[in-house]
Amino acid sequence: MSQNVSPNPTYDVIILGASGFTGKYVIREALKFLNVPSSPLKSLAIAGRNSSKLFQALQWAAHPKPPPQIPILTADTTDPSSLRHLASQAKIILNCVGPFRLYGEPVVEACADSGCDYLDICGEPEFMERMEVKYHDKAVDMGSLIVSACGFDSVPAELGLMFNSRQWLPPAVPNQVEAYLSLESDKRIVGNFATYESAVLGVANADKLQELRRSRPKRPRPAIPGPRPPKGPLLDHLKEVGVWAVKLPSADAIVVRRTLSCLAENPGGLPGVNESTEQIERREAFWSTIKPAHFGVKIASKSLLGVIRFITVGVFIGLFGKTGIGRWLLLKFPSLFSLGWFRKKGPTEEEVASATFKMWFVGQGFSDDSLALQGNRKPDTEIITRVMGPEIGYLTTPIILVQCALILLKERDNLPKGGVFPPGIVFGATDLQDRLQQNGISFDVISKNTI
Ligand SMILES: NC(=O)c1ccc[n+]([C@@H]2O[C@H](COP(=O)([O-])OP(=O)(O)OC[C@H]3O[C@@H](n4cnc5c(N)ncnc54)[C@H](OP(=O)(O)O)[C@@H]3O)[C@@H](O)[C@H]2O)c1
């Protein structure tokens, strides 16, 4: 460990941006594990730029109990010294300040400089890849583990793909896994403004991501048995489940690809900082069961009209997001241009409580890997698995973020010393899936068929 790293940080976890819409749900989730026997979370602080808003968030999160005595720290992403001070006091910072493209980098920099671990709920690929380029080496040196996308973006996709992959028992191999995401509720399904803003800014800056990738050496591609699957229709009908679907340009497929590239470079997974021999064997055994596949995500709806609404919003954001005036309109009237899916004030508690998600992973591949080598042979086997859980942004995301933090606290020796990584390659071989299942996010095998 570097000399700059504080040997005994005051807090196990600091939640930064705790006064935000998601932040307050993250506090609520973290409180469930604070000072509970068997939980490694013994000290927690919350941080942000406005103490009274932070206190209100703490009150809300603790309700109906009185707010616990938790330190409220001041930090502003425009003030690097406040972030350095924060990072020097924490084992892990959970960053909930977004859009990350606007506010995230100084927090990553402070953590990388001080050797503090960092997890966030970002769903912005350009930010994640830029942080990897700029801070990976520093983070390795300083022993700071920096993992973005520890929320609904993109842990269900990462673990869901691995779960599907593990159902292909040798000699069977997958070739393609397509995930179909369906959001359900008997009330309205609504997201908070910052997520919509992140998507709009993502479209505006799409060129930057391409530029960044062109400036870097190509990473190894995973070896996927069989021919590349055809692109498929724009509008897809998944008969087995009875949903219509269209491609979802979320971060998931990109994050999964980064994990698969990392796995191609490190076939046994990432070595832990101080692993036992048994742990090394366990880790390598786990990764030997993961077979890479072409991966994509679609957003699904039971009705064709539902999918046409997704396409309409996609067209609005895709077209208007490219010009200044268009972005102004999109951000000024979020409800209008998202057809009611995003609101400046976010969803009500009832809307959050009534929402759920289902994500089907439809894997197609070969019953025998030798078949994959036979020219343009089509897949003969289909395995469908499903990940299912509560509302995505404010229930599932805090559950995932907090469980990732608990794993870091409990199993730091088994995880890489430092570096900037996607969540799948860091947490894939840990007990994250079991932990999510214990907290209401299920993983099921739906069917295995010859096709
Ligand atoms: N991965 C997922 O699935 C997922 C799910 C949910 C959210 N998200 C992402 O999480 C991010 C936050 O979303 P949200 O809806 O919670 O947003 P939000 O309600 O606007 O909250 C933003 C938080 O950031 C704080 N903040 C803003 N500027 C700051 C600064 N300069 N210094 C310190 N703190 C600052 C705000 O503090 P104040 O209270 O003082 O304004 C607030 O606490 C977005 O990027 C969103 O896309 C991702």
TrEMBL record:
GO terms for cellular component: lipid droplet; mitochondrion; plasma membrane. GO terms for biological process: glycolipid biosynthetic process. Residues 13-147 form the Saccharopine dehydrogenase NADP binding domain. Residues 211-233 are annotated as: Disordered. Gene3D superfamilies: NAD(P)-binding Rossmann-like Domain. Residues 222-232 have a biased composition (Pro residues). InterPro entries: NAD(P)-bd_dom_sf (IPR036291), Saccharopine_DH-like_oxidrdct (IPR051276), Sacchrp_dh_NADP-bd (IPR005097). SUPFAM superfamilies: NAD(P)-binding Rossmann-fold domains. Belongs to the saccharopine dehydrogenase family. This is Probable mitochondrial saccharopine dehydrogenase-like oxidoreductase At5g39410.
